[in-house]
Amino acid sequence: MITQERRTALGGKRPMLWILAAGLLLLIPAIAMQFTNEVRWTASDFLVAAVLIMGLGGGVELALRLSHNACVKSAAIVAVTSVFALIWINGAVGIVGSEANPVGWVVVAVTSVVLAATVLMLSRMSR
Description:
Layout: H1 4-35, H2 43-66, H3 70-92, H4 104-125
């Protein structure tokens, strides 16, 4: 069983691990751009990817810190990861077509509702 000291030590280092993971993941397209013209990321692409990865890390941290119930933690992590994947996939290839398609805003709306429901669930379960 993990002791309270170990749990605190891990909790203190996890945000730095998320930053390190984001940096390492962002190195993949940066290196790929050096070898092929098929990968063409702009500075804004790197910024959006960094914000998404850090949002994923922040959401997971929030889930781990606010609830003591393993089921609630798991559900919140699945929800946060699903929102991350939905945004990432929609940004990469578009789920409903091009960026000009107004139906794409439905994806944004659904994602926002799922994220808000997750935060609400976590805040109520942490009491």
